[in-house]
Amino acid sequence: MKRDFYVYDDNNEDATWDAVWDVATRIDSLGWVAEFRIPFSQIRFNNIEDHTFGFMVVRDVARTSARISWPLYDHEKQGYFSQMGDLSGIRGLSAPRRLEIMPYVVTKNETRPSGSSFNHPQSISGGADLKYGLSSNLTLDATINPDFGQVEADPSVLNLSAFEQFFEERRPFFLEGAGIFSFRTACGDIDTQCTGLFYSRRIGRSPQLAGVYGDETSPMNTTILSAAKVGGRLGRGLSVGFLDAVTQREQGAGGATIEPQTNYAVARLQQSLFGGTGDIGTMITAVDRSLDAQSTPYLRGSAYTGGIDLRKRFLNKNYELTAYVAGSLVRGSQEAMTATQLDGVHRYQRPDDNISFDPNRTSLSGNAERLTISKFGGGITRFQSVYQRFSPGFETNDVGFQPRADEQMFRNWFALQFNDPKKAFRRAFFNFNTFQTWTTAGLPTNMSLNTNWHVQFPNQMWGHIGGNFGNFTPTYADREARGGPAVRRSQDYDTWTGVEGDGRKKWTPYLFVGAYGSDAGHSSGKWINPSIDFRVSSRFSASLGANYETQINDNQWVGNFGVSGVDTTHYTFARLDQNTLSLSSRLNFTASPTLSLQFYAQPFITTGSYSDWRELANPRAEKYEDRYKPYLGGDPGGFDFKELRSNTVVRWEYRPGSTLFFVWQQGRELSSDQPSEFNFRHDIGNLFSLHPSNTILIKASYWFNP
Which of 566 and 152 is assigned the larger pLDDT? Predict the structure, then answer.
C-alpha cells in the first residue's frame, strides 16, 4: 500500500493530496526495509543554500495499538508537525522546475429517460489538469473541463427538516489543498463538522431552476468550464490562496436557462505570528451570475462575503483563543430578494418577530461573529466555550453553507481524557456539553445538556454510551412552521449506547442502539445500527452495515395554506409514522500498489404515512395538546421513497502519475406521495425491480513533467 497526506494547521490531514513518487520494500537479514524515491518537484522549499526539513518516522503496531516514533510523539501535546525532528545539513539543492501537465479523455455511456422508455447516449470528452510552480513556495493548479465521474455518489437521504442537507466534498480538485480556503463560521461539537464562507459543492451544483424550466432530459449537474487556484506559503509565514471557477449556462425545456453562467472567486490570506503559535487572516468571496429574463426573477445576481479571523495559543500551547467577524452582501431583482427574505434561511415573513419583510428590497446585508476559548492539552482536562451570532440578513449560501440566519449560540464542552492505560481500561473519554440558542432578539430556540462516554477496555474493545436532555425550560422552534409563528418545544430526550469489537481481528463487529422521545410522549423513536468490518488479508477488506429506524413524529410539518403572515393562514402539521432502512456495503481489493478495485452500494428505503392533520391554534401554549386544533383538509397522505446507489471503480496507475479508470455507476429510484407500510422483503424486491440507470465510464489520463 502507498498513501500520502498533506498536513495543514499542524494536525489536519488532507488525504486527497496526490503526489507522484515511488517506493520499494523488501525483507532481508536486517528486517523490513523501504526505499523511497520522492522527486523534489513534489515538495516545496526555498531556494537557499542550507535546508532543514521536518522529519518523523512512525510505526503503528496493530496487534498492540502501540505507536513507536522518532522523535517521540506525545499525545498529550497539541499538534503534529510541531513535534517533528529536524533533518539538517542538506545543501546544494536548487529549486526544481515544477510543471506537471495531465491531459485526459473520457468516454461515457449513460441511461437517460426518453418518454416511456430509455435511451443510452454515448459521449466522449477531454480536458486537462495543470500544476505549475510559480515560485519555490507558490503553486498554480488549473483544470479545463474537469470530469469527476470516478467520484463516489452521495449517500441517500430523505430530508423532511426545515434546513438544507449538507453533503461532503468528494472531488479531488476541490479537496486537495482545501485547508487554506477554510474560514469556519459554524461548527459542531469541539469544532467538528464545520461549515463556512466557502463550500466548494456550490461550484458545479445541480441547476437551481431545474424545477421551474427543466425536464427529464435536463442535465443533473452544472458543467465546470474551467477552474484555477493558487496556493502556498510565502516568506515570513504568509499563506495565500486564490481560487476562480467558471460554470456554463445550462438549458432546460425549450432552451430556457436552468442555471446561468456563473463566476466564483475566493481569496484567502493568513499570516503566521508569534513563532507559529498564532495567526491572523482574511477571506473574500464573490459570485457573479450572467442572468437573463428567465433567471432574473429567481436568482441573486451577485453575492459577496468577507471576514477576518485570528487564533492564538498560549500557556505552553495548551490553550487557544480564536475569533472571527464576517459580513455578507447579496443583490438581485425585487422578486429574487423577496424569495431570499422568505426562504428557509431567513423567514422574514414570520408574524411574531421584529424583522420587517420589504418586497421592494434589491439587496440584503448581514454580519456574523464568533469567539472561542479552548484547552486542548496538559493534564486530563479539556474544555471549549463558544459564543456565535448570525444577524438576520447574513447570507453566504451562494458559495458557502449556512443553514439559517438570525441566531445566537452559546456552547460549552468539558472533558476528562485518560490516555494512559490503567487496569480497567486502555483509554477513556468522558464528555459533558451544554448547548443554547436564541434569535438575535432573544427568543430562546433550543437548550440541551449532553454527556457521552467512550472507554477502550484491555481487550481493545470499545464501549460507548450517551444521552441528550433538552428544552426543560421554555424554548420555541421558530422555523418549524416554515414562516409561521414560533412553536413551543416540549422536553425531549435521546439516549444511545454501543460496542465495538477488537480492531486487530480479521473481523470487527459493531452494534449501536438508541431511543428518543418528546412532545409529552406523543413523539418517539428507536434505531439500531449493526455493522461488521472484514480484513481477510492485507489486500482485501470489506464492510457491511445496516441502519433501521422506526419513529413517530406527532408534529411533522405538512404545508401552509393561505398567505404567510396573515391571520387566516393555516400552518398545518400531522402525525408521521415512518420507517427507514439503509444498507451499506464496501469492498476494497488491492492487487498491487498501482492496481485496485473499490465497490460501494447503498440500498435506501423509507416509508411514511400521515394522520391526525392539525393546524396551529395557540403555538406557545404550555400544554402540548393546546398548541394545535383539527384541520379539515382531508387525507394528508404519505410517501414511499426507495433508492439504490452503487459505484464500482477499477484504478490502474499504469505509470507514475498516469491513471486509467474503469467506472460503473448504477442508480434505481422510486418516489411516491402515497402512504405505504414498511415491508422489508416486499420493499427490497420492488427496489431491485426498478429500471436501472447505468453509467459506464472509462477515463484515461497521462502525467508528464516536462
Answer: 152
